[in-house]
Predict the 3D structure of the following.
Amino acid sequence: MSGATSRLLGGHAGDVAYPYYLINGRTADDPTQFRARPGDRIRLRIVNAGGESAFRVALGGHRMTVTHSDGFPVRPYRTDALVLGMGERYDVLVTAGSGVFPLVALAEGKRGRAMAVLRTGSGAVPEPSAHPVELDREVLVSGRRLRPHESVALPRRRYDRLLKMHLTGGMKEYDWGIDHRPYDPDRLHRVERGERVRLVVINATDMWHPVHLHGHTFSLAGIDARGARKDTTILLPHRKLVADFDADNPGLWMLHCHNIYHSESGMMTTLAYH
């Protein structure tokens, strides 16, 4: 497809226009309905299980409190909407109002959308084109604003090893890679067991990428590695990701873009230790 653009994603939003976008396997014209009572405290676990589309998610008539990112608790953070890259997960709390409310997931930068319904009373199902005002208010695009709960914050420690790499390629040639090279199973980024590793990933492309590390969680890091714990994060065009993790799970682990078409064309590499 062409013309998929998003201010929140820094430009080009995606390459594939899908005929349907789904929540729990259902389309917006026949949505899943979640039933509750007014005043119920509800925990929503939102998973972007897609392969190529980011989703901007909001529940009409409600603000949400983020409690977890990629399964790890964070200090509560209030927002109206979330953008989830492929593979990202957020847990949020809402206090249910009285009525029928659309839970909308816009395919960010594209024309399609998915929808489910929260029902706490009588009323018609919202139209498939429902567009809650919350989608255009305060939007959390990445975990950079989040802080970890103290129970999961990485201990303060200087890093032992620095791994630096560039995401490269472009939409025209579809030559996605890392450091201008496509994936090669013989190319290994070696670390040692027990090290604190600082990962610096520079997005040298004109498109956003959801960066995912297998086998570990990282802390979105500054000097003291006190950012939220995640395993997948959105990296906007011409921006830099700094993340710290502890090498405590020996093996061969993929580091890749979670856009399936990008990783398949070469934007992945291997972290190795024993």
